[in-house]
Specification:
mainly alpha; about 0% strand; transmembrane; elongated; 6 helices; about 150 residues
């Protein structure tokens, strides 16, 4: 038979796109719980006060986020840590609104409650910090994968 006599072939079915792995919400929730370091260090005085405390808490948080996601096999590290940053901010905002003294907002002359207009910028900053940590964690994952 020649090609003129063959029955027409149906067009090939398009292959479904591979699904991206789901966001590990337990990792997001667990890492965002590090927002509780602020009130804990404030209550105990472990890391001092002011800038030294802030740098220590931020450094510990970043190291844990990058280490857990970068050294672990966490899928989608950039998205995971961006959402972690957002959740971290939500925990901090909720804590600041519900218990201002524990969040460290009730200083001298302060009302103890964050102004409402600061919530969105705070969440954006926390999400951006999570994005940066996610980029570093993705780099760590790539470096680990290249060595195998």
């Amino acid at each position: 038979m020649t090609s003129q006599h063959l029955p027409p072939q149906p067009p090939p079915r398009p292959q479904p796109a591979p699904e991206a792995p789901a966001v590990p919400w337990t990792v997001v929730a667990g890492l965002s719980a590090l927002a509780l370091l602020w009130p804990l260090t404030g209550l105990t005085g472990v890391l001092g006060t002011g800038a030294p405390r802030a740098f220590a808490v931020i450094g510990i948080t970043a190291a844990v986020w990058i280490g857990a996601v970068g050294l672990g096999r966490v899928p989608r590290p950039v998205l995971t840590l961006t959402l972690t940053g957002l959740a971290y901010g939500l925990v901090g905002v909720a804590l600041g609104q519900l218990v201002p003294a524990l969040a460290g907002l009730g200083g001298p002359g302060g009302s103890g409650v964050e102004p409402a207009w600061t919530i969105v910028p705070a969440l954006l900053v926390d999400s951006f910090v999570g994005l940066l940590a996610g980029l570093v964690a993705a780099g760590v994952q790539r470096l680990r994968g290249a060595g195998r």
